[in-house]
Design a protein that fits this description.
single chain, 477 residues, mainly alpha, 21 helices, 56% helix, 1% strand, globular
Length: 477
Amino acid sequence: LERAFEKLSRITSIALQNNVIDTKDMTDEARGVFVDLMNMQAKPIPGSISDMTSGSPTPTSPQLGRVAKLPVPLEKAESWEMDMLSLSLHEREQVLVHIFFDSGIGCVSAALYTDPEMFHKFYECTMAGYLDLQYHNAIHAADVTHVVYRLLSLVQAEQWVSEVDLFALLVAAMCHDMGHMGRTNPFLVETGHELALRYNDASPLENMHSASLFQVCSKPETNIFKALAPDQFKKARKTSIAAILHTDNAHHFDMVKTVNQLYEVSSDVIEKQAKQGDKGGLLPPYQCDVLQKESITYLQLFLHLADISNPLKPFTMSEAWAKRVVAEFFDQGDEEKQLGIPVGMLNDRDKTSLPGSQHGFINFLVAPLVFGTIKLLPFLHPLATQMAENLREYRNSWVAEAKPDEEAISKRDADVDKAREKADELRLRVQQDLLAPPEVGKSTSRIHPWPSNYSVASPSPSSSLLRLSGNPRPPDS
């Protein structure tokens, strides 16, 4: 009874949280993450203004070359080392064709409802709908689609998500930022943009993105949902719209609260699943009571997590994407200055550094969602290890560039150590027989483990490539 009351207390505490943050002791970059990106309220600073199968089928591997001719080795396409920035428009299409038609997820979802010819027309039309921006472009669309696919595969989603929903989520990922003009929702609202007026200031970008998807589908030659029965189309439309709308960062901390509540309600079942290890099948109570009951929430989570997944990638890829994000923010900041409106805290190129902004973005925004998600979905624990490694990399870059005092370094070191300890905790609940530090390896067979005398100031491996293991599992016939 005491344990039950403790759990109820934790659930209630999570539910009572509101989207107001005390930013008193935060840097400007950290405050920018909350106020500008998350559209949250900040407490005033004193003195300032302010249909499913069960069991564990035999694993099957994705097939190579049945439809797609991959531009990279299959092993890379099935890993977090897939670098969309290095591929051409056509090569990115080949990777997505693999996901939709050759992969374990695609074979039981998209391949049932569309064909390569229709996909090609849809791909060309949707990618043409992306503007030539630094970040919110067609490369980002392909990258997010790949990350969504990896998440679905690793959590064995084909066992507990319907075929139509899997298909719809992959399509939504391709189109989730279509038409983005490189400006944030708060900017559109502040300037009275047409989209803000049309959608009453409520997620104007995301409403436009989902509408753009179905404008493409309104034409028979590019309607990727054409083969769906009317009830299936309604389901696909509902899922796609819900997932895209939840990529608005204004919903981020509501998603964090939801994830934490889901864990507290079913923590006993989830911890039993975690003890199955990385390669364990889904336990029936976990599959039915934890996953299937909240499948639409997980689909929204996967797209949103994929959309902010840059800090979860190998560091060289993470940094390349971060530079693009910051460049786009700076472009907005320049326009804000020209218009004489408040400049976002992350948008001023004269005051914001890449390492500083990424530390705030990871520590205050990405980490809470990643840690909460991994508590629910133990298979994803390597993401936390990579995130902690990247946080350390950005800390080292910040020290080299900013040359801060010892007190500032100590505070940042505490953040990095806290993230690393939490990542280790999440890893060890799954890999209970492993007492050694987590391995953050290179793309070769040589492994560079965290040093036994780890400290955030110690030099990092020359490459931080991390691959999650796990093959898709098809549903029972």
